[in-house]
Design a protein that fits this description.
CATH architecture: 3-Layer(aba) Sandwich
Radius of gyration: 20 Å
Number of domains: 1
CATH superfamily: NAD(P)-binding Rossmann-like Domain
Helix content: 25-40%
Structural class: alpha/beta
CATH class: Alpha Beta
Shape: globular
Bound molecules: nicotinamide-adenine-dinucleotide
Number of strands: 13
Low-confidence stretches: none
Keywords: Isomerase, NAD
Largest sheet: 7 strands, parallel
Mean pLDDT: 95
Protein name: NAD-dependent epimerase/dehydratase domain-containing protein
GO molecular function, one term: isomerase activity
Organism: Chlorobium ferrooxidans DSM 13031
Number of helices: 11
């Protein structure tokens, strides 16, 4: 099967490509290698993928319409996993246009490419951030998500709506996965686990937002990767009764799905920090700060639907996951404590 993975040099994209290649798929990975964070980390991830015979990398921007049209025109991709996006809640307050370019314009190019070139299933990254300050726990895909707290969250919600229109109009099977705080080896330098580890190793204080009162459904990257690939395999069938001209009455019959993908076991931020301290054998100096604009207080995924449909089973405890991240970090950055 020929699969297109966008954001292939990114944290989750790298893990997804690796697992697909391990099982013998032919993967084309694309990424614009932007400098939102350390480009050498993206290059290092890619250097792990390039030795696989089934892997081809093309450096390109999903927002580049003509390049995307050309890439898709071969009609070779059976399935597409769209992970390329401008990620990060806080950065969306500083550079809103990056989110429109990659997450809206880029996503439109992905939808168009799939529509015109016989793609059988598009799986794309959404985010737990769409739940905003939802207080009903756990978060269910049936909850109202009309109140995003950042442009990042709004762009992810917009992706779900855009995907629905393409599923409805063109009978294109699409599945959105709302990822809940993903962490693990090769993780993003702008995210808490990396920032905390880095600061503790370098004897710097860590910034503890919301005075440490967050609860987060931290999800280990291998569990996410497994869930993405199970979802990709489980293609929503095009609807045989589909008529692009007939609007669905109230509920949708389009081959469109949205799932939560998380650990379904939220952890207090202070316990997360304690697990990092335990692994590093050091105590962090903590600077307590208020909730940041755009941040959501708590997250907790209801994953029953994904369990039912694709047998998704998150297995990694935060203690085990952090242990594996710290082992990777020490080896990659040659740290001896
Ligand atoms: P990442 O930043 O490591 O990966 C994204 C990759 O996409 C990067 O390598 C980047 O260079 C590339 N990219 C960005 N814009 C591009 C463009 N216009 N064209 C081509 N490539 C582009 O982030 P990640 O953590 O791997 O996230 C992957 C996806 O999952 C993103 O859509 C993100 O919004 C979503 N997500 C991640 C998390 C998480 O906790 N990591 C949570 C919710 C949602």
């Amino acid at each position: 099967m020929k699969i297109l993975v966008t954001g292939a040099a990114g944290f989750i994209g790298f893990h997804v490509c690796k697992q697909l290649l391990e099982r013998g798929e032919e993967v084309t990975g694309i990424d614009n290698m932007n400098d939102y964070y350390d480009v050498s980390l993206k290059e290092a991830r890619l250097s792990m993928l390039l030795p696989y015979a089934g892997f081809r990398f093309v450096r390109m921007d999903i927002a580049d319409r003509s390049a995307m049209e050309e890439l898709f025109r071969t009609g070779e991709f059976e399935k597409v996993v769209n992970l390329a996006a401008q990620a990060g809640v806080r950065y969306s307050l500083i550079n809103p246009h990056a989110y429109i370019e990659s997450n809206i314009v880029g996503f439109t190019n992905i939808l168009e490419g799939c529509r015109h070139n016989g793609v059988k299933h598009l799986v794309y990254a959404s985010s737990s951030s769409v739940y905003g300050a939802n207080e009903t726990m756990p978060f269910s895909v049936h909850d109202n998500v009309d109140h995003p707290l950042s442009l990042y969250a709004a762009s992810k919600k917009a992706n779900e709506l855009m995907a629905h229109t393409y599923s409805h109009l063109y009978n294109l099977p699409t599945t959105g996965l709302r990822f809940f705080t993903v962490y693990g080896p090769w993780g993003r330098p702008d995210m808490a686990l990396f920032l905390f580890t880095d600061a503790i190793v370098n004897n710097k204080p860590i910034k503890v937002f919301n005075f440490g009162k967050h609860r987060r459904d931290f999800t280990f990257v291998d569990d996410i990767t497994e869930g993405i690939i199970r979802t990709l395999d489980h293609t929503a069938e095009p609807n045989p009764e589909w008529s692009g001209l007939k609007p669905d009455p109230g509920t949708s019959r389009a081959p469109w799905r949205v799932y939560n993908i998380g650990n379904s076991s939220p952890v207090d931020l202070m316990d997360y920090i304690k697990a990092i301290e335990d692994q590093l054998g050091r105590t962090a100096e903590k600077e307590y700060l208020p909730l940041q604009p755009g941040d959501v207080p708590d997250t907790y995924a209801d994953v029953d639907q994904l369990m039912q449909d694709v047998n998704y089973k998150p297995e990694t405890t935060v203690q085990e996951g952090i242990k594996r991240f710290v082992a990777w970090y020490k080896e990659y950055y040659k740290v001896q404590l």
